[in-house]
Amino acid sequence: MLTGSAATPVAALQAIDGSPLAHIAAHGHHEPENPLFSSLDLVDGSLMGYDLQQLRQPPRHVVLSACELGLASIRAGDEVLGMAAALLAAGAANVVAGVSSVRDQTAPDVMIRYHQLLRAGETPSRALADASIDQPLATFVCFGAG
Q1: Alpha-carbon distance 142 to 101, whole Å?
Q2: Strands 61-64 and 21-24, how do they pair?
Q3: pLDDT the model gives residue 76
Q4: What is each CA distance from 127 to 5, 45, 47, in whole angstroms?
Q5: Residue 140 has what pLDDT?
Q6: Fold of 4-144
Q7: Predicted pLDDT of residue 78
Q8: CB neighbour class for 8 (10 Å; exposed up to 12, middle 13-18, buried from 19)
Q9: Please, what sign has the CA dihedral across residues 21, 27, 31, 37?
Q10: Residue ranges in the chain whose pLDDT is less than 50
Q11: Res 136: pLDDT
C-alpha cells in the first residue's frame, strides 16, 4: 500500500507491475483530445496513461476508483484510447473504473463492499453490480473479462 509521500507515479508503477490486483484510489482525469494524457493525481505529479506502457506485466485486475477514467475516445481507424483501454491493451484482464464524477463519500462505500464480494468469490462484474446496488450515483463500470 502506498499512501502519503510514498504514493508517487514511479512507486505506483513499480508496485503494480506484475501484481494480480491493483487498486488505485486517487483523483483522475480523462483527456478527450489526447486520451494517453489521461491521468491519476498522485503525490508529486500525475501518472499518465502513456506511463502504463512501461509495465512489464500489467496487473490482471485493476480498480481505478477515480472519476472518469473509464471514459474512452475513438480515434481514426476506430482505435479506442483512454486509461482503461490502455490497461486492457497492455494485458489487464479486467478494469473497474468510473465513467463520470464519483462523490468522495460514495467511492469508499462501494469499493469496500466490492472487495468484500471479490474475496467471497464473486466475479468482478457481479461484485461491482452488487456493491453499487444501493448507490445510484456510483458510476463505476467493469471492463474486460469479468
Answers
A1: 16
A2: parallel
A3: 67
A4: 31, 32, 27
A5: 92
A6: Rossmann fold (3.40.50)
A7: 63
A8: middle
A9: negative
A10: none
A11: 80
Cα(54)–Cα(14) distance, integer angstroms: 10
Q: What share of the chain is helix, strand, coil (3-state, %, to 5)?
A: 35, 25, 40
Please state, in angstroms and rounded to a whole number, the distance separating the CA atoms of residues 83 and 36.
7
pTM score of the predicted model: 0.89
Rounded-to-integer distance, Cα 127 and Cα 84, Å: 18
| Span 74-102, pLDDT tens digits | 766 666 677 888 888 888 999 999 888 77
Strands 45-48 and 21-24: unpaired
Domain range annotation of the chain:
4-144
- For residue 126, the model assigns a pLDDT of 96
DSSP 67-79: TTTT--EEEGGGE
Enumerate residues 6+ apart whose C-beta is below 8 A from 93: 60, 61, 144, 145, 146
- CA 32 – CA 70 distance, rounded (Å): 12
